[in-house]
Amino acid sequence: MGLLSYIKIWLVITIVNSIFVSSASAEALSLPELLSFAHSNSPYIKRAEGEVGLARAQKLGAENSLQKNPELSISAGGRTLPRGTGLEFEVGLQQEFEIGGKATLRRKLAARHISRSQAELAESQWKVHVEVHRLYVDILLARKRIEQAERFVSYALSVRDIVRKQIDVGEESPLALLVAEADLARARELEVGARQLEDSLRVQLATTMGWESSDLPTISGNLPEVRPAPAVDELIASMSENHPSVRASNEALDASRTKLEFEERALWPDPTLGVSYAREAAAAPEDPAHIWMLSLSVPLPSFNLNEEGRAMAAAELEIANQEQMATHLKLKAELREKVSALNAAVERVAIYEAGVIPQIEKNLSLLQRSWDLGEVDIHQVSQMRERLLEASDQHMDALTAYYETAAELEGLAGQELWIVSEDK
Prior knowledge:
It holds the Pfam family OEP. The chain has 424 residues and is α+β, with helices and mostly antiparallel strands. 68% of the residues lie in helices and 10% in strands. It has one domain: Outer membrane efflux proteins (OEP) (Up-down Bundle).
């Protein structure tokens, strides 16, 4: 394939990718669409795919039945004879080969490395999946924070406008306007912070996904229902079966076992088989001599017994074994911790949603009415508004803790536990 053909293919791929990104930028993306894009474009996944390609490239060398090329030797010269000089030459061909199944073990070890790199690729894919899911729900929560802040800004604006009118007619002190302006500034500060949080999360999402467009991705969907965690035993069983880190540690252990077996087999000598032909000149009237030789040479395993290779392979096997155990213990401990944290977050959310949050709009209206009737002054309004704002903010913190913990728990379980609504 010529250079022009490669350039045409590159242009087609670039155009198709730009069309996809442009169309994706034009409308909000659902969670499955975000995950699909991240799976194809995330730099973390692409790097892991490169490691798989490297392992496959190494396997090409292991597929060779003969690891060393044959050696051809040619020598020629003359023999001085009583009546002149006779021509002599020799041609030899030697080939070193492996015995004891070393070639089979080398191919097996290369296959283990591919399996290990594929397991690490799956681990990277799942990490990206979990991170995209976490950022997705965080962005939805940031939007809820914005909506919450907008409600308080609207209420603070109405209070400030009323205070101004009361000051104009002499019904209120100018100090009341200072209180109203401070409340409005507080509400607007929360709104600005919520919008900045959403932008920051979208930047993080774009980085994780490998989103190269200048327009940050917009998302659609609804948060799943808040509910307790599944049983710990079910989650541990799911983790043992599905978590990519478990598989990766198992593959690393299998590769280390094969490496040790190969290093122990490397102690076997590699014999060299050779064949040679020589022509020796003879004095007249004798004819030249034609000599054929078959040779076999074998190194004697006396001094170099591959002690270093075997010792290092044994140490690597022990490390892999300990890392496998540590991975299982660490994941189980983290899973139990996240189950406890999730259930605690469920209780925190329930505390606020049982009576406080559903009544916020009503309470703000009642507060406004009481103030209009002169039952409370501006300072009491400010204090009560601050309490409601604080309760609303704590409710959002509890929701954030719940959904982030839920995403982390899914990551530990190795599979989806909560389905996010795709309604746009």
